[in-house]
Amino acid sequence: MARKTIEERLAQLEAQKKTLQARLNKQERARDTRRKVLLGALVLHRLEHGKDELSRALPDWLRRELPGFLTRDMDKELFDDLLAPDGDAARRTESGE
């Protein structure tokens, strides 16, 4: 069996490094996505069930902050119920819109 040259071994190690880096990046993206989902679930839970001062202030804060954060129309549509003035959101919920 012929021995690999140093260049061949370095190329093989570089390929392994790239593969491992891609795997690490995928794990980091998955962890980041999981954190965002859990944080979003907490915010939604507080909006629906929270009785404390922070939970009561949360809708107003979201109405101030979300429009500047959301850039795509399809994303804004996801939060129509939160972005509408209080009366509009309540009427849409009651009418089933």
From TrEMBL:
Taxonomic placement: Bacteria, Pseudomonadati, Pseudomonadota, Alphaproteobacteria, Hyphomicrobiales
Highest rank taxon of the organism: Bacteria
Name recorded for this polypeptide: Mobilization protein
Keyword tags: Coiled coil
Coiled coil (residue ranges): 3-30
Keyword Coiled coil: yes
